[in-house]
Amino acid sequence: MKEKLKVIGPGAIIAASFIGPGTVSTATEAGATFGYALIWAIVFAIITTIFLQEMAARLGIITGNGLGEAVRSQFERPVLKYGAVILIGLSIGIGCAAYMAGDLTGGALGISLLTGIPQNYIAPIIGTVILILGLTGTYKMFEKILIGLVIVMSITFLTTMIVIRPNVLAVMEGAFVPTIPSGSIVIIVALIGTTVVPYNLFMHASGATERWKDPADLKKARWDTILTIAVGGLITIAVIVTAGAVIRGTEAAGVEALATALEPTLGGWSVAFISIGMLAAGLSSAMAAPLGAAYTIGGLTGWGSGFSSWKFKAIFSTVIGIGIITSAIGFEPMQLILTAQALNGLILPIIAVFLLIVLNNKNAMGEYVNSLKLNIIGGVIVLIVSGLGIYSLVDAVTTFMAG
Q1: What is the pLDDT of residue 40?
Q2: What is the three-class DSSP state of 242?
Q3: Is pLDDT at 1 greater than 80 in this prediction?
Q4: pLDDT score at 190
Q5: pLDDT tens digits along 307-349
Q6: CATH 1.20.1070.10 fits 2-330, yes or no
Q7: For the chain, is the Cβ count within 10 Å smaller at the N or the C terminus?
Q8: How much is the pLDDT for 168?
Q9: Gap between the Cα atoms of 209 and 221, Å rounded
Q10: In whole angstroms, what is the distance from residue 310 CA to residue 53 CA?
């Protein structure tokens, strides 16, 4: 087990990326409103994420390139090549920038709950620290920090779930008996959408090339992917279960309400546990989003997808800089975030198709091309995420028109 734990790395970055303040807030709302009924959505999302991320990691190890480079080399016609580069690059770049204010503010909420200092004072400080780390750090340093943050989130949220002693049979039923309660479809789409994240595919492929160079390492990469992403899913489930147990049916369904409701069980530690968990979630997501944008755009444009490239650092700095400014002025770009969610929902099936095309390219992958079984699973995933993407677009347009 000790040897297996040593291989943890790129997969942990993906887990840290999708467990952000948005995920914690959505999971809290899911538990508060529907109890344990929507846990199955996270189980589905985690299985989907593991399959897609394994393909991305395999691509990186076998070809030695990231997904962005693979997309560029896959198409010879300039129209197709540059069309794909612009479409994917803009969608993911805008999405990461739009989410940054929420990630930093969500992380600041953790400190604010403990100290009472306004979030818009704390968030820019967190963003500035991340900016300095991005300009001076390395991939290995980011990997270690994000692994640490996943461990912190595991301890806080899983401990909280265990302490409240939920009904295990009810939790298992929610996990393995899919139901769609009235009014739950938006939450279901949000739970899946915050877990299956497009830029994570680019980040994982590039991260795998940083960590492993030999096809013999595929087994290590697969273990890393399955273990860490499953742990990430378990953290999200823990938040749903905790909220479902202590604040279901209450009018106040936010993270602050969750901390208050846990006081009879955890006493004075309740606020500290939730605060630390939110701070870790905000930090992990705020570090991963600009990293994902830099790997994606750097790979697609051929500018370089590593910390040794100044263009890579420029992309990272731009995205985190937008987050620092917007979080400082208290700007919550809801329409922009809705647009980003819709774009990312639509772009995910397109990227998944690109991934499947590359993974079936024998010139690039050799004997490590996808099996028929993986292609069938991948095809089903593409159909499902396409449906979710269309729904998210319709929902965003409807919300925009109503606003």
Answers
A1: 96
A2: helix
A3: no
A4: 85
A5: 888 999 999 999 999 989 988 887 665 555 556 666 677 788 8
A6: no
A7: N
A8: 93
A9: 10
A10: 27
Instruction: Supply the DSSP string of 103-128, one letter for each residue.
Output: HHHHHHHHHHHHH---HHHHHHHHHH
Contact 85, 67 (CB under 8 A): no
Amino acid present at 4: K
Q: Rounded to whole angstroms, how far apart are CA atoms 20 and 284?
A: 7
Structure letter (DSSP) for residue 33: H
Q: What's the maximum distance between 2 C-alpha atoms anywhere in the chain? A: 64
For the chain, the domains span 2-330
pTM over 0.85: yes
- Least Cα distance to 294 among 89, 28, 47 occurs for 89
Rounded Cα gap, residues 148 and 151, in angstroms: 5
Tokens of 66: 């990231």
- The residues, any chain, with a CB within 8 Å of residue 240's CB and separated by 6 or more, are 27, 28, 30, 31, 36, 38, 39, 42
> With bands split at pLDDT 50, 70 and 90, how would you rate the model's confidence at 254?
low
User: CA distances (Å), 89 to each of 133, 216, 286, 300, in order?
Assistant: 24, 32, 19, 7
User: Across the chain, what does the average pLDDT equal?
Assistant: 86
In the chain, the amino acid numbered 24 is V
C-alpha dihedral sign at 299, 223, 289, 123: negative
Contact call for residues 290 and 125 (beta carbons, < 8 A): no
Q: Is the dihedral of CA 291, 52, 218, 298 positive or negative?
A: negative
Q: Which residues touch 5 (CB under 8 Å, ≥6 apart)?
A: none
Inter-CA distances, 168 with 162, 241, 246, 310, Å = 10, 10, 15, 51
CB neighbours of residue 376 within 10 Å: 11
For 74-87, write each residue's pLDDT tens digit: 777 888 888 888 88
C-alpha distance from residue 384 to each of 26, 196, 211, 256, 388 (Å): 20, 12, 31, 34, 6
Name the region of 79 (left: φ>0; alpha: ψ -120 to 50; beta: rest). Answer: alpha
Q: How far is CA 226 from the centre of its chain?
A: 15
Whether 46 shows a pLDDT value over 80: the answer reads: yes
Amino acid occupying residue 92: I
- What is the DSSP annotation of 331-369? ---HHHHHHHHHHHHHHHHHHHHHHHHHHT-HHHHGGGS
Sign of CA dihedral 176, 181, 187, 188: positive
Q: How far apart are CA 300 and CA 360, in angstroms?
A: 20
